[in-house]
Design goal:
- The N and C termini lie far apart (about 55 Å).
- The radius of gyration is 18 Å and the shape is globular.
- It has one domain: Rhodopsin 7-helix transmembrane proteins (Rhopdopsin 7-helix transmembrane proteins), CATH 1.20.1070.10.
- By secondary structure, it is mainly α.
- Strands 1-2 form a two-stranded antiparallel sheet.
- About 65% of the residues lie in helices and about 5% in strands.
């Protein structure tokens, strides 16, 4: 069995778990416990992981580029949904107006458009090719200027979101504080994996561990929310705070 097949099988299995978890959260009726921001973040993470999983099975450049573009729809949107969810978590969802949400998605929308039309301008990837390392075939890319704009914006969203969660660790008490601690700890996994990948410190250069770290984080997020009856973002009357109003 080839290395590609092994990694593809393992990642596709994880992908099915993510699909199940995503479907589970969307089927829940308690919006006060499962806000739309969390469900959207989980959906984006699932798109990322599933597309990345099937990338292991593809061998041609065209197929790998197509699957990578699909994965980037999730990659680009996860940080914004994380930011919005973190606002929701610390009871700041009243600030998430439709205007703010629309503004936050300007750069991601431009990133998706430029990534989708990259062959015309090379702003996202200046060069792409198929390479093999330790039996694993992967898409090698030379990043363009807009890739770094997207990356900087994503890290800003992730950082601010993490700060919001950390304020919850300080402000909340009891179960809510434990939820905040779990969320703050879980976000370290994909963040650390992505830093290693972009910095070229990955022991397996052909493998981006970020989506797997993100899947682990999402399991932690769900455990944090599902494991406690109390939701820190509930209003005193038990209703969920409106987002996007």
């Amino acid at each position: 069995m080839s290395a590609n097949t092994i990694f593809a099988s393992a990642s596709i299995l994880i992908g099915f778990v993510m699909i199940f978890l995503t479907a589970f959260t969307w089927m829940q009726q308690d919006r006060s416990k499962w806000p739309w921001t969390f469900r959207a973040m989980l959906t984006s993470a699932t798109i990322w992981l599933v597309a990345y999983s099937f990338n292991f099975l593809s061998v041609g450049l065209t197929d790998k580029i197509l699957l990578t573009k699909v994965a980037y729809v999730g990659i680009i949107t996860v940080p914004v949904f994380w930011f919005l969810f973190s606002m929701h978590f610390v009871n700041q969802s009243h600030r998430s107006t439709r205007y703010l949400i629309s503004t936050l998605f300007i750069i991601p929308a431009v990133s998706i458009l430029l990534m989708g039309s990259n062959e015309l301008h090379g702003w996202f990837w200046r060069d792409t090719g198929v390479q093999t390392d330790q039996g694993i075939t992967y898409l090698a890319t030379e990043y363009g200027i807009w890739f770094w704009v997207h990356t900087a914006y994503s890290y800003i969203m992730l950082l601010i979101g993490a700060i919001f969660i950390l304020t919850g660790v300080i402000r909340f008490s009891g179960r809510a504080r434990w939820q905040a601690l779990i969320l703050a700890t879980a976000v370290v996994f994909p963040w650390g994996a992505n830093i290693l990948f972009l910095a070229g410190l990955n022991p397996l250069p052909a493998i981006d561990w970020t989506p797997f770290g993100l899947a682990l984080s999402c399991v932690g997020f769900i455990a944090a929310i599902f494991g406690f009856d109390a939701a820190p973002w509930k209003t005193p009357d038990g209703e969920v705070e409106a987002v996007g109003g």
